[in-house]
Amino acid sequence: MRPRSQGVYVPPELRYLVFPPGFIYRDPTLSSSSSSSSRPSRQSKSIIVPHTTSRQSVNIVPHDRFQGVFVADDGKTLYTKNLVPGQAPLYDHEVKISVKDNHGKLAEYREWNPFYSKLAAAILCGAQNLWIKPGSRVLVIYSQDDDRFGTTISHISDLVGPQGMVYVVDPVNWKTLASMADKRFNIVPIIQGVVPYKYRMLINMVDVLFAAPDSEEEVRMSYLAATYFLEAAGHYMLYVQAYFIESTNRGDSVFSSLAKQKQIQFKRLEQVTVEPYDKDHAYIMGAFRTLKVDEIEPSCLSYNKRLTAVNSHRGDGEYISLYEQQKNLPVYILFDSSCGYALFRAHKVYSVERNFIAIEEYVNRFDEFFEFRACHPFGSADDALSYLNAVSNGTVHEQLIEFLLLNLPKPMDSGGNVIYSLGVPTAMMANHIVERTKIACSINLFHDEIIRGVRMHIDRFFSDMKPGDLEKAQIDLARNYCKQKLDLPDYGKSQKKRSRSQASIPSSTPSRKNPKRRCVQMLKPSDCPV
């Protein structure tokens, strides 16, 4: 047994009474009043002790392996320290404990129920690594209609603490997500689809990717989210069905639907089944982009060198191969964020080998190969929201067109030849820019990697930006966008209707709720760069 000095000890004289779920009891010894309570009170801040008999003390100690996780003496009951003590429980099954720590301060702990949160189940089933710790930045991708959705999210919020950030992408459980974001200041609510480019303005680089993919297409979206936002040597945690798990010698077989050059970027480190809490699923945990060149077979190392670009002569959005024609042309990069958008020029682009290791090294030498050209900070929250609405609707904001025409050279010479290309995040944006400006726009994996590099260094290019300003702008923009969505009439009904309609479409892979059903792939393979 641990020494009591290492944990939060509840002395024997502090007696607790166990009431039915949903009731809250104020212990008179923890209250300023000397009189005891005669009945449970829902307004109380001191909560019952779970899984203990009446008049029994509890010793809560830090977990041996995971920072921010606490465990009771029995070794089976997990807790996290509540980020927002005193708030009403999120669910009826939620159990809290209010105790005094070794310094005499009142602290509140929340029981982490493994039946309601499979992340807690993974810890109890022997997971060796969690990677989510105080100060971490975590991206959570969740798109299932689940009444237990908020349990795991709220405990992750407790784990990362006030210095961390939790970006939650969920277009389905919008009401629960909005409610949690109102109470927990480190949660960024992103009521968007799981396609990463739609929420690129609302998120920074993260340390951990936590996702629950249900189909091959959602696995593809998890991969794209990693290439957009996950730091090199960062970690991923996937909660998947058993049919995704296969034995393989190349990368992580969960990503078997992807090209082998993409699979090799994910190195599985651990696989944890969560029986008896869930018999049909398991956690796959691993690292992202940790391999060296000599550890990768040559066939997995090279990307296709063909680049696609919009034919600026026609202006109709037709795609043609311009690698040979553009390999010596200047390349400009457009980057947009919650603070505004910026324009960069990338040098020696076509001298870089098309594999993720060479690209990562190129991006890390940002000051040497990237030249800042211009930026346009948003003048107000309404300007930022207006631009984000244009991104969500697949259009281009009028101010962006004016910005490009003002800060880029003419797109063609007197002979009608393209003299440079502009790397943009999406094909829809490229089509609109070409139609309006005749600028040749490129959309490919390599330019996505360059945009990823800009995201890692963007805070240095906006004047008067202090540490934390970018995160604050992301939170404000995400919550304004969330509020706008929730204020729309029948928004919740439309989301549930969309979820039901997608569930009724036959598809190519089973879903979590019905393994025999098959899900249609919402995106074509050509929509994701190869």
TrEMBL record:
Annotated Gene Ontology cellular component terms: box C/D methylation guide snoRNP complex; small-subunit processome
PANTHER family: RRNA 2'-O-METHYLTRANSFERASE FIBRILLARIN 1-RELATED (PTHR10335:SF0), RRNA 2-O-METHYLTRANSFERASE FIBRILLARIN (PTHR10335)
Bias type Low complexity, positions: 31-46
Protein name per UniProt: Mediator of RNA polymerase II transcription subunit 36a-like protein
Segments for region (Disordered): 30-49, 491-530
GO biological process entries: box C/D sno(s)RNA 3'-end processing
Biased composition (Polar residues): 503-512
MF terms in GO: histone H2AQ104 methyltransferase activity; RNA binding; rRNA methyltransferase activity
Alphabetically ordered keywords of this record: Methyltransferase, RNA-binding, rRNA processing, Transferase
Nucleolar protein 58/56 N-terminal domain: residues covered: 332-394
